[in-house]
Amino acid sequence: MAAVLCDAVAVLAGYLLGSLPFAFIITKLATGKDIRFEGEGNVGARNVLHVAGPIPGLLTLLLDAGKGAAAYYLGHRWGSGDLALYLAGFALMLGHGFPVWLGWRGGKGMGPATGFLLPMWPYAVLSALLILIAARAVIPDFNLSLTLAGAAFPFLTLWEGNDLQGLLFIVFFLGMAGIKKVIDLPHERAMRAKSGWTEGLAHARHTRRHDAG
Fold first, then answer.
1. How far apart are alpha carbons 86 and 169 in whole angstroms?
2. Strands, DSSP E only, in the chain?
3. What is the pTM (predicted TM-score) of this model?
4. Who is most buried in 63, 79, 95, 100, counting CB within 10 A?
5. CB neighbours of 97 closer than 8 A, spacing ≥ 6?
6. What is the mean pLDDT of residues 156-184?
7. Pick from 87, 107, 89: which is nearest to 97 by CA?
8. Which residue in 90, 96, 95, 91 sits closest to 44, CA to CA?
9. Angle formed at CA 29 by CA 26 and CA 34, multiple of 5 degrees
10. Cα(132)–Cα(147) distance, rounded to whole angstroms?
11. pLDDT band at 143 (very low <50, low <70, confident <90, very high)
12. What span, in angstroms and rounded, lies between the C-alpha atoms of 201 and 78?
């Protein structure tokens, strides 16, 4: 009974940590704007960088990663095993994506996910970040670069002794961010049209049209 209670507390803590809306708070303090309706409309560090600048964006990234690390610590410390830890991770992503404080409109969760995964597979996380940076240097689309790094990550964890259970966790854990992106597509398209946000091939086409005009 005590183990079940501790597991439940760890999962609840994961959700509450995930729901801390650092992107919203920092952007509000820095600019007075509601990040949900600025830039691309995502409640995440990259949108804060775009809307509020590099320092607020970096601070948001660090705090989001920090709440992910805290969720890992609590799940590892209070949970009765791997299942409880994994459930705390899923709750973290749910809290970040659907925070009760912001009318259930949150971010995709890559910052918190990074903080949660880092203590589990540190070298794989750092290697995936290097892949992201390298891909971003040659690929104009951030989401494609992120997809490449995310696809490589499960295989990188094998070098740190990951097993089938851990691989399945990663697939579902990072898959939650992908599902949230699909859910958010209509809103993000509307916000991008409103703000004029373009990137990747769309940005290149926009630039060519502007130069031609």
1. 7
2. none
3. 0.89
4. 95
5. 18, 106, 107, 108, 109, 176, 177, 180
6. 93
7. 107
8. 96
9. 75
10. 9
11. confident
12. 46
